[in-house]
């Protein structure tokens, strides 16, 4: 393997029902940032998409930062298959030699990335939260990939000096999407692919959607999140949330106690969220919780313990009983609106 032959920043595009997954848009934004961070490399941002999508979706990829889209076209690929995706992406990697290949750490990405890395005989850094080029050498494309370890108490930075592509999965909700720029146009390199001889022993018979997945807390602008301190009074959070168009989430303790479902858990083993406003009620602020919300634009914390660690990341801290403060807050908002 001659590392010098490998170039550009590739991003795997996950899509469903002709919509790009938010996590892939975030990776396009991050790839763009990396490209601009190191202009001497003269790298392109290349989106890689399998399936069949509309022209609009392809234009959207360009508007969101892709200089080029490698479009491996076959209608059947709209349905994910580990075997087919691994095979086709491996072929693409052999032919085009990407230096960096970013995959969202979604359910699909976590299934695909380890297989693909093994097939390409390269390393994989999973669940990364930070990427930067070698800070010591301004011309290097060596990627420093940081990820939490030991329950979020330590961060490890991993480099891959000897194999290519430098492959990594990135936690959704951590990177910033690029502001949409419709003036940007990207090249589309479409290839009709054949699935002959790629019969997958796994067949998907039916895809059932869970009703409650209609709300994705990672996309909410305002979140009111409850912890153990709220006990069984999540109704107070919901009442307040209804007044301001917020969604309700919770800490792992609240999930473990059955106050709210796991899909709404914020934190290291839940979702990473970055809303405009995050209101933490009766949440202590353990590192594993902070890992999922500390990048929120504005944090309001209500806790009766003035020394609770959540106050260290809060923009506004209210020391008091959340069960008393929340109804007052809801009442004030209602009065203000009327
Ligand atoms: P507690 O820590 O019990 O805090 C309750 C808080 O409520 C206290 O600060 C208390 O002062 C306050 N309080 C009590 N009554 C009131 C009241 N009436 N009004 C106001 N305040 C009140 N946690 C997550 O949240 N998300 C994760 O994804 C996650 N992943 C984890 C992964 C690993 C590997 C491990 C080891 C742990 C993980 N945890 C996670 C658990 C985490 O360490 C904490 O145990 C958890 O976040 C605590 O939840 P909590 O703040 O609701 O409860």
Automatic annotation (TrEMBL):
Protein's GO biological process: fatty acid beta-oxidation using acyl-CoA dehydrogenase
UniProt superkingdom: Bacteria
Cofactor note: Binds 1 FAD per dimer.
Domain Electron transfer flavoprotein alpha/beta-subunit N-terminal: 9-200
Gene Ontology molecular-function annotations: electron transfer activity; flavin adenine dinucleotide binding
Pfam families on file: ETF, ETF_alpha
Keyword terms, alphabetized: FAD, Flavoprotein
Protein family per UniProt: Belongs to the ETF alpha-subunit/FixB family.
Official protein name in the record: Electron transfer flavoprotein alpha subunit apoprotein
Organism: Proteiniclasticum ruminis
Lineage, broadest ranks: Bacteria, Bacillati, Bacillota, Clostridia, Eubacteriales
